[in-house]
Amino acid sequence: MEISEQQAAEALLRWYAEMGVDEAVGPAPADLYAWQNSSTDIKKPVPAPKDTATPITPIFQAEEAAPAAEEAIATARKIAASCGSFEALRDAVAEFDGCPLKAGAKQTVFADGVPGSDLIVIGEAPGREEDRTGKPFVGRAGQLLDRMLAAIGRSRTQDTLISNVIYWRPPGNRTPTQDETAICRPFVEKLIELTEPKVIVLAGGAPLQALLDISGIMRARGVWRELELESGARFPVMPIFHPAFLLRQPANKRLAWADLQTIEARLTKG
Ligand code: URA
């Protein structure tokens, strides 16, 4: 039996949906303006460039390649070093074009809460809600984070700063690449330097890997570590479970609660 192109396309979409592919995005941001789409001129997917770390082929490729990661990191370092305040850093991150994720995000998600707080919570990257609102941790995981903070008498409206190791939503919420993390890192370090927190909480395995180069949140959580910045400044760090993980595995809230108690004790100690 012959089937029409439309029927074939519908069958393919149904199959994608059954396989859990529910977003038309690739791992690299797509510049759809550069993709000349017409019913008679549908371009073939462009294969991933040879040097990409990710094995998945992007659906479309942006017209201009992002600046090489090395160059972007150097630029980020220079810009971050010139920022003398939270506001200057926030504006500089919003203007920075060196991270390829920016092209696929609706907006920059820098931080929320009180600058200069003695507690800073650092997560992974904005998701859909964060990308929509421009604020970190506002989706379901963010609401749980707020409740976790409230349990130790903390809140982002009074005495806590919340941010991420990545400032732009990765396509389809994929894990950020090492290059993307490295490009954002000078800004993350500067935010920590300007905040001078008494405690840094790393929410989940991604910031643990990105900032301390440690993998395995299951074993690392609940144990104090030290983060040494490029400037030489050192800060106490506590890795905890990511609230999104706790939503999926609520039995682990017991351990998260113990970690929160440890954090509170350190914050309230003289
Ligand atoms: N998860 C994160 O790690 N960060 C956010 O901002 C939201 C969800």
Q: State the name of the first-level CATH class.
A: Alpha Beta
Give, in order, the helices and strands.
Answer: HHHEEHHEHEHHEEHH
Query: Helix/strand-derived class?
Result: alpha/beta
Which term fits the overall shape?
globular
Largest beta sheet: strand ordering: 1-3-2-4-6-5
The whole-number mean of residue pLDDT values reads 87
Helix content: 25-40%
Helical element count? Answer: 10
| Molecules bound to protein | uracil
Low-confidence stretches: 38-66
The main pleated sheet reads as: 6 strands, mixed
Q: What is the strand tally?
A: 6
Domains counted in the coordinates: how many? 1
**What would the CATH topology be?**
Uracil-DNA Glycosylase, subunit E
Q: How would you describe the overall organization of this protein?
A:
- The protein is α/β, with parallel strands linked by helices.
- The chain has one domain: Uracil-DNA glycosylase-like domain (Uracil-DNA Glycosylase, subunit E, 3-Layer(aba) Sandwich).
- It is 40% helix and 10% strand.
- The chain has ten helices and six strands.
- It has a six-stranded mixed beta sheet with strand order 1-3-2-4-6-5, with helices on both faces.
- A hairpin with a 5-residue loop joins β5 and β6.
- α2 packs parallel to α6.
- The radius of gyration is 21 Å and the shape is globular.
- About 11% of the residues have low confidence.
